[in-house]
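Extended Data, panel c. Modelled sequence:
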Amino acid sequence: MEPGEVNSLGEPYDFDSIMHYTLQESTGNFSSPGYPNGYPSYTHCVWRVSVTPGEKIVLNFTTMDLYKSSLCWYDYIEVRDGYWRKAPLLGRFCGDQVPEGLVSSESRMWIEFRSSSNWVGKGFTAVYEAVCGGEILKDQGQIQSPNYPDDYRPSKDCVWRITVSEGYNVGLSFQAFEIERHDSCAYDYLEVRDGPAESSPLIGRFCGYDRPEEVRSTSHNLWMKFVSDGTVNKAGFAANFFKEEDECSKPDNGGCEQRCVNTLGSFKCACDPGYELALDKKSCEAACGGLLSKLNGTISTPGWPKEYPPNKNCVWQVVAPTQYRISMQFESFELEGNEVCKYDFVEMRSGLSSDSKLHGKYCGTEVPEVITSQYNNMRIEFKSDNTVSKKGFKAHFFSDQDECSKDNGGCQHDCINTVGSGSYASVSGHGFILHENKHDCKEAECKHKVHSPSGTMNSPNWPDKYPSRKECTWDITTTPGHRVRLSFNEFEIEQHQECAYDHLEAFDGEGDSAAILGRLCGSKIPEPLVSTGNKMYLRFISDASVQRKGFQATHSTECGGRLKAETRQKNLYSHSQFGDNNYPGHTDCEWLVTSEEGYGIELTFTTFEVEEEADCGYDYIELYDGYDSNSHRLGRFCGSGPREEIYSAGDAVLIRFHSDDTISKKGFHIRYISTQFQQNLHTRK
């Protein structure tokens, strides 16, 4: 140790007169100077033991022979629970009695030896050992893997036995979790058991990168074991434990008017369908949803036509007379999400229970088709999460007798009951439209609108030969800020040098007026096609003569690209399934947003939810005020992102998004617009 390494914390400190020792191995020993031949007078020595964070130090004196005085005033050893001389005192010793073993509360220990007499004893010897795990007898605290948040060391075997006050359970909540991944957690793992011993019932064996669900024991004991093998090491885990009480088991039901739901460390009140919590969070009041027995009516999301509030759960149960069917027709529809409907959604079911036949789960902006129940009742459930809110929906329901139940209503294909006495409609199957006689069906036009982020498309009649005199179009649109990629799996179209007969054309945008990406024919599989924006248009044409097998292609989405800012606001999303799923791992995307000469660019972050880290080293978005990364950096952001708009000083902004392979979040939504240059720019490092 050098003098500059000492932090005296404002106290007088004569470095040269003290012998300093720093011990950092997991085991070791030390002794007083001159042992066993006697220590010198007026000696002052300090040993600082530092082991891996998350471990404790066990110190045992093996011999002791110091001058004995009242209160150990002259020659003594002091042991402190920490890394400096004012840390909590574990003990002060002198004489010839070997003390009991001492254990630190964390990973550091301070041992100080002083002699001030002329009496010479042999001195002392001591050994220490770093241990992980142990008995924990308190109502709350934190447990970490050794060396957390840095990688844990190999070949560790740590056991914790947690005991809280009698009459309570143990709650365990994970703040971070990253342990070597394996299907059966055979290498590195954390094992949690419901009780005080290794033979207690297993709650779970955990590994990988997903944080385990919260754990609750059935008694006041919890047993935990962490094991690492000799190879791959990761950051490990951090978990809080605390005494847990089931407030809902009390006679007053936790003070809840209707339902009490126990949670770790607390509880919450809940309400029956058709009710919601009042401001006191305990009593219930009439809310969205409820039981509806009218033949027709209207339902809408809370607050319609304004944005619905977060964290809403509305259930409508519609009941009609026997032999009636209920039809639901949406007038307007705008929910967060696109296809997967992970965050906000509405579910339609035939029946009244949550496990009745599901007609569909809907979100996004596409208005669902009319939905008709199979029975005389229908369940509609709306849920919103705690972030993005939209306008919601308004829908009308109608009850009507089912005229299609007899002879299929005389329809060739499908008969759909419609609203009104004696009313029904004939509906044609896929690829057909209704004939003028309203009963028979005829072949429909071959036009397709594609909004999904990925999928397949085929030539007509695939995998058989396509028909003659056929024209089909596909209008593909993906998430703003992303590009359409088209890859061909099979391809066989009548060959011609200029593809003048049968052919497939691809256009870089909306419609056949956009720039052409290629006109394709023959039997050689074409190279993949990528649009420059979020739209691609395909047109397939066959003439009257030769027919072939046609093509099968896969469309997918690529992030990044060049975007043009205009005076009307445009959107950019972190990933193609924004609103449906969290962003994927191992992502590196780059967008260049440009504007007209003389205009700058304004970026507004309407949603920003990216893995948080102090230096934004894992997942982040970087902004550069120019065309490349050599330009002035406007900032690197993670967590909840920028709190205000960001303006460029020039006519371009480079946006980079990176994600690692562990935690993923909801992502971001940027609105960008060209604007006249600002005098005061928001530029952050």
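Residues 1-16 have pLDDT under 50 and may be disordered. This feature is highlighted in the accompanying rendering.
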